[in-house]
Design goal:
The protein has about 600 residues and is of the alpha/beta class. It has 23 helices and 18 strands. Helix 7 links the parallel strand 3 (about 115-120) and strand 4 (about 140). It binds adenosine monophosphate. Adenosine monophosphate binds near residues 35, 42, 61 and 266.
Length: about 600
């Protein structure tokens, strides 16, 4: 691996962002994060948001939408006040996203000394109250918690100039429509209202009509560069948590054994880290930086061509204009920020009738983006499981044996000195043992025996078809597979609302709001539908967490109530009756006696 050359890269790094007119502190933060140019949604929305326009943007996770709304917010904050007034309120569906967004705002606004607080369940409220009492520039909250604080009088929203509703469709799916309306009523009417949503069902339009002023509508354009015909390459995706990504990629590459691969990362920092990780795994990996001169690039390409390097790790900017006919694999280390970028990237393999492979690593939340890409390209991306240790071992053995075969097929004379050595060993050892020991040495030297741990499969829907875009009209129906029901021993009398259940489950498991439901909240208990494949995970997660500060009894709920009887906690007939059965009114749940553990 050559030393990455940063100096010229820094020169060009902020060009795209500078042109947007961002303040120097933000540009410095962006350079520090290794962003090289604005993503499409950022390029389109940042100037408009800085003008104060309302915006309705269609963008999913992974498109860079957080920075798209965060940077204009930070551009406008007044710094240096000891007790700042809150000027921006960001509402997000889940705790996970609240944390993610508040951290992103903190990172972007670091040099400005921005004060940001995230309000969500599962943390001591006094900490939130304390932060609020000192004054913050930006509040990121889940709808339920924003409402709780409004009721407590701990949120002062009179100075709010921007409200952002992030993942608005997800919030509606989670049953937060009323909460959102109530929150919007509390902020000054002259504020700017920004809404992002991965899909645009009519209900989103309705909110826009009621609460936005002449919003600009933006959608990641399906540009002319995309003719709907991605090249014919084998396209696969692996869903892995961020934590396991580098290890997963290492393993996938071990199995794929590419001759020459281009790996795309979002940032140059990621490029450097991944180059280091893959080099440590025994790959000849080279980092390609945006600021490299043509000569430097040519040298790197030369190394790829001669086989001195087998992996090229690059950002989109760095890979621009590469002559890459020899590539066998393209890897998206993240789901690209726009489907068009995916098409552009994978267009680099499978040229001239050669076989090409496109591999994409997606974090659980980015699975939706894969669906967008499938829709755009009208091609299927097969979601596969990260190879297990056993699969890896067997593939490694295959590769060792294959290299032995190649050696056996090579020029006979080259083996002569080794034959002499084997002859002498044969007087002491069995010929089979000699061959086995030699093979073991080769195998070990290839790095095939390093310790490996299993990488958890976090894909809920292996081989999942593209998710159709649709409006559920308030009904939540899981998108795929059988639905199972879960009994949760808290209900209306414990102040539980459907949104609390969806929020808790979406926060604690890999399910999204759309996959949770239907939900019935009775006085003393609730029944929640979840995909059959996720039942154990959901039960485990709810057992570990609290709902409205209380631990809940939770178990699988079967249609015939057998679980209830099995648990010997309720007399037959006193447990909750199956719901959704024809002719059974929903109110049968109210006060009908609660099965106890
Ligand atoms: P988001 O869609 O906001 O969840 O962002 C997805 C990821 O893209 C995050 O890890 C961001 O740090 C990253 N990101 C956002 N903007 C850029 C950019 N202009 N260049 C590179 N990475 C970015």
């Amino acid at each position: 691996m050559t030393e990455p050359d940063h100096s010229p890269a820094v020169e060009t790094a902020t060009n795209g962002f500078e042109a947007l007119g961002l303040r120097p502190e933000l540009l410095a933060a962006i350079v520090g994060l290794g962003y090289e140019e604005p993503t499409p949604i950022q390029a389109q929305t940042i100037p408009l948001l800085m003008e104060g326009r309302d915006l309705l943007g269609q963008a999913a996770t992974g498109t860079g939408k957080t920075a798209a709304f965060a940077l204009p917010i930070l551009q406008a904050i007044t710094v240096g006040e000891t007790h700042p007034e809150t000027s921006a309120l960001i509402i997000v569906p889940t705790r996970e996203l609240a944390i993610q967004v508040s951290e992103a705002i903190w990172r972007y606004g670091r040099e400005l000394g921005v004060k940001v607080v995230a309000l969500y369940g599962g943390q001591p409220i006094f900490r939130q109250l304390q932060a609020l009492s000192h004054g913050v520039h930006v509040i990121v909250a889940t709808p339920g918690w924003a409402i709780d604080h409004i009721h407590r009088g701990s949120l002062s929203l009179g100075g709010v100039r921007v409200v952002v509703l992030d993942e608005a469709d997800e919030m509606l799916d989670m049953g937060f429509a009323e909460d959102i309306e109530a929150i919007l009523e509390q902020v000054p009417p002259e504020r700017q209202t920004v809404m992002f949503s991965a899909t645009m069902p009519p209900r989103i339009d309705a909110i826009a009509r009621r609460h936005q002023r002449d919003p600009i509508r933006i959608r990641i354009a399906r540009t002319a560069s995309v003719d709907g015909s991605a090249p014919l390459v084998r396209q696969t995706a692996y869903v892995v948590s961020r934590h396991h990504k580098a290890a997963a990629l290492g393993r996938i590459l071990d199995i794929e054994a590419p001759t020459a691969a281009l790996v795309f990362c979002r940032t140059r920092i990621e490029v450097d880290q991944l180059t280091e990780t893959l080099t440590a795994r025994g790959y000849r990996a080279e980092a390609l930086h945006g600021g490299m001169s043509q000569e430097q690039r040519d040298r790197v390409m030369g190394r790829l061509r001669s086989g001195t390097a087998e992996l090229l790790i690059a950002t989109d900017v760095a890979a621009r204009g590469l002559d890459v006919d020899l590539l066998t694999h393209v890897v998206n280390y993240d789901v690209p920020s726009a489907p068009e970028s995916y098409v552009h990237r994978i267009g680099r393999v499978g040229r001239a009738g050669r076989e090409g492979v496109a591999i994409t690593l997606a974090e659980p939340r980015e699975q939706r983006q894969l669906g967008n890409i499938e829709r755009l390209t009208k091609q299927k991306i097969a979601v596969e499981k990260v190879p297990s240790v056993a699969e890896l071992r067997s593939r490694q053995m295959e590769l060792t044996v294959a290299s032995l075969r190649t050696a056996l097929d090579t020029d006979d004379e080259l083996l002569d000195p080794f034959r002499t050595a084997v002859q002498s060993l044969r007087s002491e050892f069995d010929a089979l043992d000699v061959a086995a020991a030699a093979l073991k040495l080769v195998h070990d030297a290839s790095g095939a025996t390093i310790d490996e741990a299993e990488i958890p499969d976090v894909s809920l829907r292996p081989e999942r078809p593209a998710r159709p875009v649709r409006d559920h009209g308030g009904e939540r129906t899981p998108t795929n597979g059988a639905t199972a029901r879960i009994y949760i021993g808290l209900g209306k009398l414990n102040q539980i609302r459907p949104g609390d259940l969806v929020g808790a489950i979406a926060n604690e498991t890999r399910l999204s709001g759309k996959e949770i439901g239907p939900i019935k909240v009775a006085d003393r208990f609730s029944i929640v539908g979840v995909p059959e494949s996720a039942v154990d995970e959901v039960i485990e997660a709810i057992r570990k967490t609290t709902l409205k500060g209380k631990k809940a009894t939770v178990r699988r709920y079967s249609e015939d109530g057998s679980e209830v009887r099995e648990s010997r906690e309720a007399r037959p007939g006193t447990g909750p009756k199956p719901w959704n059965k024809p002719g059974k009114p929903a109110k049968q749940y109210g006060g009908q006696g609660r099965p106890r553990r």
